[in-house]
Predict the 3D structure of the following.
Amino acid sequence: MRNPYLLLIFTLIGLPLTAQLSSEETTVVEGIDRRAEAYFGVAKQIWDFAEVGYQEQRSSALLQELLEGEGFTVEAGVADIPTAFTATYGSGGPVIGVLGEFDALPGITQTASPDREERIDVNAGHACGHHLFGTGSAAAAIAVKNWLQENELEGTIRFYGTPAEEGGAGKVYMVRAGLFDDVDAVIHWHPSDGNSADAASSLSNKSAKFRFYGISAHAAAAPQNGRSALDGVEAMNHMVNMLREHVEMESRIHYVITRGGEAPNVIPDFAEVFYYVRHPEMALVDANFERVVKCAEGAALGTGTTMDYEVIHGAYNLLPNVTLGEVMHENLRQIGGVEYDAEEQAFAEGIAATFENAGEADLSTAAVVEPFQVIRKGSGGSTDVGDVSWAVPTVGLRTATWVPGTSAHSWQAIAAGGTSIGKKGMVVAAKTMALTAMDLFRQPELLERARAELNEQRGTDFVYKALLGDREPPLDYRN
Amino acid sequence: MRNPYLLLIFTLIGLPLTAQLSSEETTVVEGIDRRAEAYFGVAKQIWDFAEVGYQEQRSSALLQELLEGEGFTVEAGVADIPTAFTATYGSGGPVIGVLGEFDALPGITQTASPDREERIDVNAGHACGHHLFGTGSAAAAIAVKNWLQENELEGTIRFYGTPAEEGGAGKVYMVRAGLFDDVDAVIHWHPSDGNSADAASSLSNKSAKFRFYGISAHAAAAPQNGRSALDGVEAMNHMVNMLREHVEMESRIHYVITRGGEAPNVIPDFAEVFYYVRHPEMALVDANFERVVKCAEGAALGTGTTMDYEVIHGAYNLLPNVTLGEVMHENLRQIGGVEYDAEEQAFAEGIAATFENAGEADLSTAAVVEPFQVIRKGSGGSTDVGDVSWAVPTVGLRTATWVPGTSAHSWQAIAAGGTSIGKKGMVVAAKTMALTAMDLFRQPELLERARAELNEQRGTDFVYKALLGDREPPLDYRN
Amino acid sequence: MRNPYLLLIFTLIGLPLTAQLSSEETTVVEGIDRRAEAYFGVAKQIWDFAEVGYQEQRSSALLQELLEGEGFTVEAGVADIPTAFTATYGSGGPVIGVLGEFDALPGITQTASPDREERIDVNAGHACGHHLFGTGSAAAAIAVKNWLQENELEGTIRFYGTPAEEGGAGKVYMVRAGLFDDVDAVIHWHPSDGNSADAASSLSNKSAKFRFYGISAHAAAAPQNGRSALDGVEAMNHMVNMLREHVEMESRIHYVITRGGEAPNVIPDFAEVFYYVRHPEMALVDANFERVVKCAEGAALGTGTTMDYEVIHGAYNLLPNVTLGEVMHENLRQIGGVEYDAEEQAFAEGIAATFENAGEADLSTAAVVEPFQVIRKGSGGSTDVGDVSWAVPTVGLRTATWVPGTSAHSWQAIAAGGTSIGKKGMVVAAKTMALTAMDLFRQPELLERARAELNEQRGTDFVYKALLGDREPPLDYRN
Amino acid sequence: MRNPYLLLIFTLIGLPLTAQLSSEETTVVEGIDRRAEAYFGVAKQIWDFAEVGYQEQRSSALLQELLEGEGFTVEAGVADIPTAFTATYGSGGPVIGVLGEFDALPGITQTASPDREERIDVNAGHACGHHLFGTGSAAAAIAVKNWLQENELEGTIRFYGTPAEEGGAGKVYMVRAGLFDDVDAVIHWHPSDGNSADAASSLSNKSAKFRFYGISAHAAAAPQNGRSALDGVEAMNHMVNMLREHVEMESRIHYVITRGGEAPNVIPDFAEVFYYVRHPEMALVDANFERVVKCAEGAALGTGTTMDYEVIHGAYNLLPNVTLGEVMHENLRQIGGVEYDAEEQAFAEGIAATFENAGEADLSTAAVVEPFQVIRKGSGGSTDVGDVSWAVPTVGLRTATWVPGTSAHSWQAIAAGGTSIGKKGMVVAAKTMALTAMDLFRQPELLERARAELNEQRGTDFVYKALLGDREPPLDYRN
């Protein structure tokens, strides 16, 4: 039943295998299996909705309904965000939170086919698998609730319905609103093309739209009367490109010009450029962001334009918690990865054939659990889980909901997420999170150690201050 | 025939009009007056349609219907442009052409109110007065036709329905197709805020969209794998801005960035910049355009991207014909400017109150005809009449269809063009053009002199070659 | 004796030839001829010295000695410039000034050979012919002095020894110091490759060195600690290049980077760029200069550097005085151009053979006097005579001291200026200026009209304010 | 006697302490001590000469003389470099090489004073301590020679006199010429502010001067005729600054503009920019360099200029050899660091007081030997020892010839290098290198292991190809 690779990995990394699940654990795991189809039904509805950030009304309502039906107390519209909610069960400590996302990505659609086939009813898609994320986390929360209930245990399990992860930074507003203040540990996961529970960081990120205002004039008849807002944007970009030499080398700064003038014969009186500033450490993100602002100010001064900017989002780097990570990893090892049946294997091969380097993907890795790693210097992407991880000891995993070799944000991710491959990966995640929560409820000393580890990592004079400042949630950022 | 010094005297001391119109001329002028309301009804319909370039189906059809009803032979869909047409009456020479435009401008709307009031049914408007242009020219053609008919004169009058003047260069395709090859002189006019018939040039212009193609990559995870198309655009622009020092000082080059990337976290694999290159002389436009292309090629080479470009439009500078200009000016003097009644005066004062420098406009200038000038070095804008003027001796005038102080392409222009002020200006233009055409029919030596002047200006080895090359009409450029 | 071309020109421009010089005039002209060799000896010494701006100790002393020997009262070291001086003769009004320059250009040397042959004793040369300028003007002043003296006339003739015309703006400091306050008219000339006395303007100009200060750091080990002063310079230049679109089209802005860092492995903590800002009107120069300063300020702000700038020089556009210009032109017509003997012709042909477009130069034009023109919009170069011309009615001419086709600042100019061709051109200038001064002394109404013309051109609220502000003369700018 | 910290460090890294030197080793060490003053006399002469790269005639001759006097066979002018030489003693294998540098840095001078005091006789200085480097290495070679001679051992010791390390890449030409082909191991050291013998890499580096050629023109009179070479440089730099986003993040690219035009009123027809391109891996340096070349080519194409470039120098990253590094470290531990007497302590305190962060330097670290580290990814600087290390197993150390806290290339380094502090550091290096060479002569299996390690690191298909290509040594690069 268990993946034979697991043993090998175990041998390699030299940890004792506690292969036997307890009776309580078996009950929890089997309970999830029993309701797997129903949960996937929910996920598939959210996949169908494909609602983008802060517009996830139906997706959020569906998950609220599911949890309320299970006896959770739902608080909706938290943190001034209509689609954000908490669903709480139990009383007293410890308090364990589970994160659930459900927003789709705009501009990319796909059916559940292994061939490229766009949906015609919607121009968005779950290319990051958040329909599985939200539903799988709800499944874990419900499983834990059932266990607490059946065993009449003290403690609180709380599901966080967290909107707009993709560029909307929903969780940051929820952290800022104090919604995590009474929580002892937070559990989350993410769809992926493999299975792992690393204690890994991410890049901190702060974004803003810089808007330049000039003076319009006929570009041929009287350009001397005009001040080009686009000149402002280009001067800013020029200075930022020079700035790249003068920031720590792990810094990442990137931009697109979102408004570059209307017609060539009119000097643009408005132009806009959208920046991301990232670094493994949030302190440096803030410092570098200030320097980018100076580039914008200098550009406005030099081009005779004016400038303002709106911070769009901001996220801390993820603070890995090794204490919790080891627990999560051990449970993932117990549960194992995703094994394909013949139909899934055929689907996976179909998807793999569409990869740029077709034939190089090793599909068997979907069944493998990767060795545990601690990665303190983040790279690649960013996530608003970062802010949560600085507030509460936080632990996550990723499971193979996608065919190995699949990139996040690809049509191949949408496709697999709509099939039983997505379902299986979601079930692995739900089980692993439920077992991990049970470990934490039963071993308060783990929570103490995890908290101590967090305190040490944060430093003694840490005070939380959202990178995005005091701005309101940009509820219309996807309009 | 006419005293050339009269002009001077008139303008200098502002004496009332002394010259007597001939009986035939009086008939023509009165005929236009009699049908003024009907013509304005046609113009107002086109104003209502507010159809943008190459999409003027209803406007074109309406004018075709009007002319066909008057006995003109209509040829529609000429030069591979569905909305382009010719309407011809008569036989033998001379052949006199009259140009008529009818395209609206996108993105600007206004009712016929002196206060800012957007129409809600359409997001376009006749901010350049082409509804008056097309109808007024048709009125002139019909008047000339009636005169030819009544007097059983030999000669041909031909109306050119010329679409998409605003950035679509419709006339260039019509010149390229040889539609003006048998014409002896071309007459046109343009709505304005004053009355004049200068022999004035315009800027030659050539435009193109430069498209850069890069390689997409995650901007934080693997920017080294990406090649930014936006880098290509910015490198091109940088070199063009340096190029400004090294072109003749009357050159004008301007651009907007029409596509600047999709999302900051993705290295843009596509970006686009839209350029206009202008100069008083078309030969230098072509030379400077080639240097702009070099900037684009160098940018692609240096940024590891690829580039192509599409010429969007191109127009020669207007070649003033002094022979014809003097005739036109004299007729304009005979007809005189636009005098407001009380209601119009109130409207004009209302409009003038909305000007940036409110109170500075001298409304009485609507009634004044400006002195004749010859301006060989163009400035300001460009027009596709330029290409016509290198093919055929061409002469134009402008009349006060707008309140003095009104800028072209403003909502104030739309507003006035929807009122009797617009009608009066249109009537002045129709009368002046009709009288001018009559002069040319009656005095073939004028046509000979005009042709000789054209030949001298063009030079002996002139061969027409459209600046926009052999491209097809961009029938979808307003989509 | 007279150049036959003169007659032709005369015929063309239709003026009566007053061919006969008066006896007094003949005396003056012959006096200059008699001393021509001696004067050229002085000029040749200055040519040999080849002293650059503000370092013309020997050149200045030589001219002072010459004038003092003739009875002029010399005041040396005026306007806080060691090599500036005035030399005055006579008493009472009118007061006529004559300008004399004597600085050489650095970095270019040549012997008096028609073949390229560098001098080895000095790395500078009179490529702008100022050795002739200073000496020829002194010759004119002495001739006028003799005439005043012999005829016991009232009036004052004053020679101005004006250093550092080439980028040092010597005359501006002399104007600023009030040295021209009591003068009724100023006469000057300039070496050239032809003969003319146009009432022509020049470009106004203001220059400055912009200095950026950064923070040095090892460019490979710790670039994040550095702030590149060169980044500041490049950001400024970028914004100035964009600014070119947004200034009046006759504006000229140009720069060189005079310090661009020391070694690639060190982030530059200092960099410098040297700008000229020009326009036909000094008011716009000042306005555009302020915008260039804004580019520099913006660049410093955006690149984390600091910036200051030093205005190096500044000159008004020359204000043409038509009243005086017509007098000067008439006298130049009387005197005629430069005719070559066989040896000079051979030399000229040798020089012409070195031109890029060899064979195209028409050497006979050295003998021609060009028709009179009034050119109010300056183009080409700038001169510190500009400031003088806004203080006093000023008139100049140019004579063919160089072989036709020679560019100013070329080795060919140095070569010809060291031969009898230079001498002949200088003599033409001296005679023409002397005759013009005599006309002014004898016809005070000319001075009145010239002053009235100046007042009208300046406008009523004109107050002189040097473009270079209150800076001290940059006595070390050539170090 | 030994630094008590050493024991601590030893304990930490868990190696056996072989505290007793053998009798042969004691003889060698004492021999170096006995001649320390004489060696420092040689070093001080080279310090006085302060000869820059490829101009080290007297410095090279002095070292040749020293070694020849000791019985070495000198071959001078090797690799087509007048100041490069080898000095060989012994016969048969193994062959051990010792590197000796002796070039000074231009533009920085200082006396041996702890206060800033420039020398007035020379504008260069040993701010990188190469006078100690060359002499200390010679001292080690002589000590080994004496030991071989006294014990009649087989084997060859060879000193390499390697000029122009600072930007001249002298050793690269010597590697390219095959001068290291028969060598079994190479030993080197470098002056520093501490003592260590890490197996550490450096950055690979390739540099070039990019020269742009335009067309000169008067910048005000006819800029349209000019093509600015400086535009080419700035366009190139702009594209390189954008390129920074698209290279591996450890890449370093830096430049200075070495020629930026002559005078603002002349469009520059020549401009030059000097680039360094670095990365921890030489393969990526080569790849990135090609992309920088593309930026230059694109800039030339876009600005209408032409471009060529001259590779100035190039160095591989240092390939650490752990086998040899452990041997060197163990010997350094035996010898110990530098202990100050009272006078030296006072001097050191004086120097430390001039540091930017005065008071933070811990002077006691001069006596400490740092723990052994293996650093495979280079950072900071580059050295032409890199190429040697890919040809022969190579090992180095650094010793505290400078006051702790001193930066290389600072005046403080020159100062300390001229005092007994420099002498003591040099003696530590000479002893450590001599003991290491003795180990290698006596334990051929170390050489075998070192060679095997090198082969593995290089890979099987490694073929040496100098980054600087086939260019000749730039013997005049310091002119």
